[in-house]
Amino acid sequence: MSSQSQEQYQFIESILQQNLGEIGSIQDFQFFYGGNFNLAVRVKLKQGEYFIKWNQGDHEGLFPAEAKNLALIASTSTVPVPQVLGVGQLDEKEYLMMECIPTAEKKDNYWSDFGQKLAQLHHSSSKKGHGLDYDNFIGAAKQVNQWNQNGVNFFIQNRIKAQVDTALYHRRIDGDTNDAFEILYEKIPSIIPNETSALLHGDLWSGNAMVNQHGLVSLVDPSCYYGLREAEIAFTTMFGGFEKEFYEAYNESFPITKGFHERIPLYNLYPLMVHVNLFGEGYLPAVRKILDSYVG
Ligand code: ADP
């Protein structure tokens, strides 16, 4: 084992001991490099299997927020999520320890079951409107979740404009693009329907949907908030991978308002701008294309 791996091994052992007490020996482990900045490991002990992810301590508050997100989804008893077992700091790094999802073959009804469960999650609403009691992250990007009774205004201010302002500040977009966004903000309320808030996973791409031991969905890595559920369904189409049974079952359980397909590009300006801020300007042509179609 290289000295770097040995260090990581000891780090993992210490986290397990911090949260489980006496652990015996590690039987097996497998590293993941899932996200762009977190490291993760699946680790097997005699008493069970665990999943731990950590970062270099450079995203303060990210894992405590993720732990709250997971607990919030779990509290709805709708879509399963892994149980959080520990969140903390060690050697100036931050970590999140949770139950490991043992994977299995997808059951035939995986997609329709997923669609129904997501619809049930979306039936959880908040009297406070759109937002959340705490800020959290999408990937490494901060999500400000200040409550707003108007979902469309929340979407404009706290989602699109927040990312556009960050991109402008860091000169990832130019003044012309910002001007086009300013015009778009005025138009959005006549395009997007203002619905009751729904509890969203918030980062629902196929990489965050796992197949659990029952052959059914478990969701990981949430970036929750109470928001417009159409934004969540639009998100699933951005990188694809969701089968038509998923959409059919969702729509049967919780019908989507007519005209949704035309609104998808507008909703996806949010994840696209997050990508511009996190991964660079390669995502800008896609943003410009959507802007041009609305603003000209
Ligand atoms: P990041 O926040 O770094 O993107 P994720 O939470 O998305 O990390 O995890 C990366 C990958 O690790 C996921 O795509 C999934 O394959 C796997 N994974 C995540 N959580 C668990 C878990 N609780 N049990 C087993 N595998 C998991």
UniProtKB/TrEMBL annotation:
Keywords: Kinase, Transferase. Gene3D superfamilies: 3.90.1200.10, Phosphorylase Kinase, domain 1 (3.30.200.20). InterPro entries: Fructo-/Ketosamine-3-kinase (IPR016477), Kinase-like_dom_sf (IPR011009). SUPFAM superfamilies: Protein kinase-like (PK-like). GO terms for molecular function: kinase activity. Belongs to the fructosamine kinase family. This is Ketosamine-3-kinase. It comes from Aquirufa rosea.
